């Protein structure tokens, strides 16, 4: 039983990486100059049979950092009013501090060595996350500095779709376009999509048992 449990772990499945699904809403495309306005993070867990599912969630509305640029067309697209007091926005430091703390605990609990960001068109979200982390000078950033799992690329391979809404629908996951472009909603759908893609690969027999793989390599 102990050997089987060791196989069915995030550490074993992803080479020591701890997947964390992230989505951001921003006031533009330039991570260095445009404001981060919303961020959500969902951790992933694996059951004792090796199936993935969403675990813990954090979501924050974020105050624009001092001097941040707010591109009007971006605000029209995502419908965010940065000056709305009902947003309950926090600073980048507060948001990332809590997210990083949750992620570091997950890494420790799962005996992984580093978090890896999972996102749809991951380079965009990763860029804004890293830029915000740099501005806040937070230490012990748990995320890999450049590696990501991109569900757009994975969906293109597995489902023949790269748009999040179309990928979800093709995978049998309900998607409400009126709720899209909310960091929390998009993160929830992306987490469900990532788990389905990995679980589908397992159902098809694509994930070789580590013991069998080791025997193949050593034979």
Automatic annotation (TrEMBL):
<dbReference type="GO" id="GO:0005829">
    <property type="term" value="C:cytosol"/>
</dbReference>
<protein>
    <recommendedName>
        <fullName>Ribonuclease T</fullName>
        <ecNumber>3.1.13.-</ecNumber>
    </recommendedName>
</protein>
<dbReference type="GO" id="GO:0008408">
    <property type="term" value="F:3'-5' exonuclease activity"/>
</dbReference>
<comment type="function">
    <text>Trims short 3' overhangs of a variety of RNA species, leaving a one or two nucleotide 3' overhang. Responsible for the end-turnover of tRNA: specifically removes the terminal AMP residue from uncharged tRNA (tRNA-C-C-A). Also appears to be involved in tRNA biosynthesis.</text>
</comment>
<feature type="site" description="Important for substrate binding and specificity">
    <location>
        <position position="146"/>
    </location>
</feature>
<keyword id="KW-0819">tRNA processing</keyword>
<feature type="site" description="Important for substrate binding and specificity">
    <location>
        <position position="77"/>
    </location>
</feature>
<feature type="active site" description="Proton donor/acceptor">
    <location>
        <position position="181"/>
    </location>
</feature>
<feature type="binding site">
    <location>
        <position position="181"/>
    </location>
    <ligand>
        <name>Mg(2+) 2</name>
    </ligand>
</feature>
<dbReference type="GO" id="GO:0045004">
    <property type="term" value="P:DNA replication proofreading"/>
</dbReference>
<dbReference type="GO" id="GO:0008033">
    <property type="term" value="P:tRNA processing"/>
</dbReference>
<feature type="domain" description="Exonuclease">
    <location>
        <begin position="18"/>
        <end position="203"/>
    </location>
</feature>
<dbReference type="InterPro" id="IPR012337">
    <property type="entry name" value="RNaseH-like_sf"/>
</dbReference>
<feature type="site" description="Important for substrate binding and specificity">
    <location>
        <position position="124"/>
    </location>
</feature>
<comment type="subunit">
    <text>Homodimer.</text>
</comment>
<keyword id="KW-0540">Nuclease</keyword>
<dbReference type="GO" id="GO:0016896">
    <property type="term" value="F:RNA exonuclease activity, producing 5'-phosphomonoesters"/>
</dbReference>
<dbReference type="GO" id="GO:0003676">
    <property type="term" value="F:nucleic acid binding"/>
</dbReference>
<dbReference type="InterPro" id="IPR005987">
    <property type="entry name" value="RNase_T"/>
</dbReference>
<dbReference type="Pfam" id="PF00929">
    <property type="entry name" value="RNase_T"/>
</dbReference>
<keyword id="KW-0479">Metal-binding</keyword>
<feature type="binding site">
    <location>
        <position position="23"/>
    </location>
    <ligand>
        <name>Mg(2+) 1</name>
    </ligand>
</feature>
<keyword id="KW-0269">Exonuclease</keyword>
<feature type="binding site">
    <location>
        <position position="23"/>
    </location>
    <ligand>
        <name>Mg(2+) 2</name>
    </ligand>
</feature>
<feature type="binding site">
    <location>
        <position position="25"/>
    </location>
    <ligand>
        <name>Mg(2+) 2</name>
    </ligand>
</feature>
<dbReference type="InterPro" id="IPR013520">
    <property type="entry name" value="Ribonucl_H"/>
</dbReference>
<dbReference type="GO" id="GO:0000287">
    <property type="term" value="F:magnesium ion binding"/>
</dbReference>
<feature type="binding site">
    <location>
        <position position="186"/>
    </location>
    <ligand>
        <name>Mg(2+) 2</name>
    </ligand>
</feature>
<keyword id="KW-0460">Magnesium</keyword>
<keyword id="KW-0378">Hydrolase</keyword>
<feature type="site" description="Important for substrate binding and specificity">
    <location>
        <position position="29"/>
    </location>
</feature>
<comment type="similarity">
    <text>Belongs to the RNase T family.</text>
</comment>
<dbReference type="InterPro" id="IPR036397">
    <property type="entry name" value="RNaseH_sf"/>
</dbReference>
């Amino acid at each position: 039983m102990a050997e089987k449990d060791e196989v069915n772990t995030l550490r074993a499945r992803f080479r020591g990486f701890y997947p964390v699904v992230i989505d951001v809403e921003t006031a533009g495309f330039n991570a260095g100059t445009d404001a981060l306005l919303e961020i959500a993070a969902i951790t992933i867990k694996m059951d004792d049979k090796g199936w993935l599912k969403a675990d813990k969630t954090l979501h924050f509305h974020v105050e624009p950092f001092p001097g941040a640029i707010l591109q009007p067309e971006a605000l029209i697209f995502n419908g965010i009013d940065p000056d709305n007091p009902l947003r309950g926005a926090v600073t980048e430091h507060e948001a990332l501090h809590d997210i990083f703390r949750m992620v570091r605990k997950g890494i420790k609990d799962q005996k992984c060595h580093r978090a890896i960001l999972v996102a749809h068109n991951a380079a965009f979200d990763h860029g804004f996350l890293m830029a915000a982390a740099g501005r806040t000078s937070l230490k012990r950033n748990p995320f890999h500095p450049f590696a990501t799992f991109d569900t757009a690329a994975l969906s293109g391979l597995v489902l023949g779709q790269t748009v999040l809404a179309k990928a979800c629908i093709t995978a049998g996951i309900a998607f409400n376009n009126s709720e899209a472009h909310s960091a929390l909603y998009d993160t929830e759908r992306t987490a469900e999509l990532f788990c389905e893609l990995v679980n589908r690969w397992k159902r098809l027999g694509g994930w070789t048992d580590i013991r069998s793989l080791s025997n193949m390599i050593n034979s």
